[in-house]
Design brief:
Layout (H helix, E strand, L loop, with lengths): L8 H4 L2 H14 L4 H8 L1 H14 L8 E5 L5 E5 L2 H18 L17 H19 L3 E6 L3 H4 L2 H11 L3 H11 L13 H21 L4 E5 L2 E6 L2 H18 L9 E4 L4 E3 L2 E3 L4 E3 L1 H19 L5 H15 L5 H10 L5
Antiparallel strand pairs: 1-2, 3-5, 3-6, 4-5, 7-8, 8-9
Helix pairs in contact: 2-5, 8-9
Length: about 350
């Protein structure tokens, strides 16, 4: 694997690769009017994108902004469909093959073959090793306050410059990062943003592994866990990481960040994890109970859409299958006035 990305922009810039990017973008975009209109003259639209990328006239379109309220309030910015294709092409051709292999094995967000369930499997494995080796140990649980909104664009661009030496790819990277006048923050909703965020915190991963020598470290986006053998080490690591984040990345820890004894378990990626078992997060239990109450009311009024309800409940069951939830799920089913 080369140390930097060089001289491959035009090699990767072909009609076929942009068409493949379109097909990938389709999988993440519903059958909207915007997508249908693009596909009505697919070949011409792909060629137009190709020409703009070749002659350097490509610019990002206008954002559509909206708010989502689950699991918490977030401001989302969404680019037009054509820009999504360019993002897909950029990530698939340059970031995934050249940048992601640089990541440590214990980071799990936005990486093929990893994800939340892999993250909790590895974390619980590390917790069991610590329990076996030390009996009692300490958990450092940290997350970053307003992470996406706090990313410094200049720092991010300097990180990308270390990796990318192809001036055309670097120019496109600059366009994606500085797509508005804000000094800080990258838009939640862009396909590139989740990868830029991961690249940004890879600096933390390398510091934790190479400088602090953290053996049992797990990160999923801006949530990260470190397991250490005693309180003094936990206190030292906490201070060192807090200082690194503020001085090198201009980030601040969430007030909920702390270190504590292992008997309390750890809340991570939707589960409460102990060495011996896993439980559903309290927020998840509250949400599914509310849903069942709502479904029961709709059922009594003969307004329940069984198909949509089944999809939603099966999604919950798939999530809960990764923890010890048999008794809780039985209670849920007993509270249902209907059968799925």
């Amino acid at each position: 694997m080369p140390k930097t990305i060089r001289n491959c922009y035009f090699e990767k810039l072909t009609f076929e690769k942009l068409l493949e990017a379109h097909h990938r973008a389709c999988k993440t975009k519903k059958m909207t009017y915007e997508r249908l209109r693009f596909e009505l003259d697919l070949e011409t639209n792909i060629i137009n994108i190709l020409k703009k990328l070749k002659n350097g006239t490509y610019t990002c379109g206008k954002y559509r902004e909206f708010i989502v309220y689950e699991p918490k309030v977030r401001y989302i910015k969404s680019l037009p469909y054509a820009d999504r294709i360019v993002h897909q092409w950029y990530i698939y051709e340059f970031i995934k093959p050249y940048v992601i292999p640089r990541f440590i094995k214990d980071t799990f967000a936005c990486i093929d073959g990893r994800g939340t369930h892999k993250a909790i499997d590895v974390l619980q494995k590390y917790m069991r090793i610590m329990k076996r080796n030390y009996g009692k140990y300490y958990i450092i649980k940290m997350d970053i306050s307003k992470f996406f909104y706090s990313i410094d664009k200049d720092i991010l661009y300097e990180i990308m410059k270390k990796i990318i030496k192809d001036k055309y790819i670097l120019s496109l990277t600059h366009l994606f990062i500085y797509d508005n006048n804000d000094k800080k923050g990258i838009p939640i909703g862009n396909y590139t943003s989740q990868y830029f965020a991961n690249i940004y915190l890879n600096e933390l991963d390398q510091f934790a592994k190479n400088n602090l020598k953290c053996k049992y470290y797990v990160r999923y986006m801006d949530d990260f866990i470190i397991l250490v053998k005693d309180k003094s080490i936990a206190s030292n690591y906490f201070k060192e990481i807090e200082k690194f984040l503020e001085q090198k990345l201009e980030l601040k820890l969430n007030k909920k960040s702390k270190y504590y004894p292992n008997y309390k378990g750890v809340d991570f990626c939707g589960f409460k994890i102990y060495e011996t078992h896993r439980l559903l997060r309290k927020r998840c239990k509250v949400k599914i109970r509310k849903n069942i109450k709502k479904w029961n009311n709709l059922y009594l009024k003969n307004k329940l859409d069984l198909h949509k309800t089944l999809l939603c409940y099966n999604s919950y069951l798939a999530h809960s299958s990764h923890c010890n939830s048999y008794n809780f799920n039985k209670k849920l089913e007993n509270n249902m006035l209907f059968k799925l």
